[in-house]
Amino acid sequence: MDEDEIHNRVLSSLSKCQNVVMASQRESQEKTTSLLHKALSKKFKNICVITSDRSFPEYLQKLGEEGVDYSKYSGIDCTAGKTLDAQPNRHIHISSPSSLTDLWIALETIMDTEKIDVIILDNVSSLINYNKELMVLRFLHSFASRLRKTGTKGIYLILKENESAIGDLALFTDETIKTWETDF
Hints:
Elements: H1 3-16, E1 19-24, H2 29-43, E2 47-51, H3 56-65, E3 73-77, E4 91-93, H4 100-113, E5 118-122, H5 124-130, H6 133-150, E6 153-159, H7 163-169, E7 175-178
Parallel strand pairs: 1-6, 1-7, 2-3, 2-5, 3-4, 5-6
Helix pairs in contact: 1-2
């Protein structure tokens, strides 16, 4: 999918859906994620990203290098290892992606502090690597329900290799975008 396809597809999905799964192949994940952020940062004012692969400051630096306005972003950093510049309510660090309870508390803190338009979970595959898949799915089911109650949009990034989880996520999300498919 190119930039226009991602932009049109994602924004179209979010205009009619609350929770969207965006599955990509490992080799194209970084490009797809970048294009996603370019589209979202033009449309939404308050974006929260939950990172589990790199620290939130590194994530923002990468977005900035790609021309994304990251001043609209708050984040929950799930990377193991202490982030020194965590700012309460805009950037919360938890100890590990395996701590789903801490992730939930951080999510509640950010959502109770400011109106978030969209939350991007980057990425579900990492949470599955650190937790049992069933526990992650239960967490995400509660997460999707919380987003519905508040009117916040949710995007769940996941790798194609987690096919069973993609199918399970479809049970409680509204749409799945498979970026490797050109015919939607």
